From TrEMBL:
The keyword Transmembrane helix applies. The keyword Transmembrane applies. The chain crosses the membrane at residues 44-64. It comes from the Bacteria. It comes from Streptomyces gottesmaniae. Keywords: Membrane, Transmembrane, Transmembrane helix. This is HEAT repeat domain-containing protein.
Amino acid sequence: MSEDSKKLAAASLGVVVLVAVLPAVLLLSPVAFGAGSTSRLTAVLTFAGVLVTASVSLIGLMLNRQTERRLAHKQAEQQRQLRLDAAMRAGQLISPADSGTAHPAGMASGLLALTKLDNADLAVALLVDLWPEEGEKEQSKISDETAILVIDAALRSTSSNAQLVAAELLCRHATKLNVSQSLHWPSAVDGSWNPAYRPKTKLLILEALVRMATASEPNEGALRSVAVRLYGLWREEPRASTRGCIGKLIKVVFDRLCQFRHKELVHGIQMVALSDLERAAASAAENPDSYLNDLSDNLANRLKEWAPSCQGYPIHPGALASAAG
């Protein structure tokens, strides 16, 4: 029972006691209420009537609140049961009961259904086995685009474990993704950032972006995509050490972007100028942890080796949309 319910029950009990005891006390007390016993009896009955009305109202209010609480609890249980049933049906799409091979469309539907049912942890855990590694046969597996949708849902969830697993999978499969393809990068970290991510989750996403970029076809569009994504991460990141690491990567990209004639980068409704990137590049700093510093230097060097080869315009489908972020 909640504190408010306890107070309400105590008040109701007090009123009942008053109704039972106070009339007798008033009738037997020596205090004069009027010019005779009739006046006294009338006053006592009037007072008792008021107390009875108040007690009935309090008891009714208490019963009503208990009923509402019981109904709310029942509805919550029903919602949990419905979610559980829906999750079980989604699981059956991924792994049929007849032990047959699930169709890729069925697996994709099941995983995406789990994310909509606030089961991102389960969806991203199943993705570990359902997303084929590079070079692995993709029959009876889900596509890269579906996997990115599941990862995006996990990164948007409130579960730090789901976020970490999603970042790990993104990093693991990064070399088979295309930095210029919008469907190959989760929108949760596409020009935006969640400062509440664990440090390991943040570093995995950074590494995934670099690995994806250096494995993609080098052109100006790919370089611009890397630049605006890195800047979005840098802009929202509060930790100085992480900003310093991102600044290293932006500095490498900035030096190459300065050689192109286009001085503005469009990302959605935002315009990122070279001066913004220059300010971010100026924040490049050594990490206090020498080992992490060496690893970040290695990532920056890989990006530095890739950046000079970025030239010309992309010719893949969707290149125009990619240019707009």
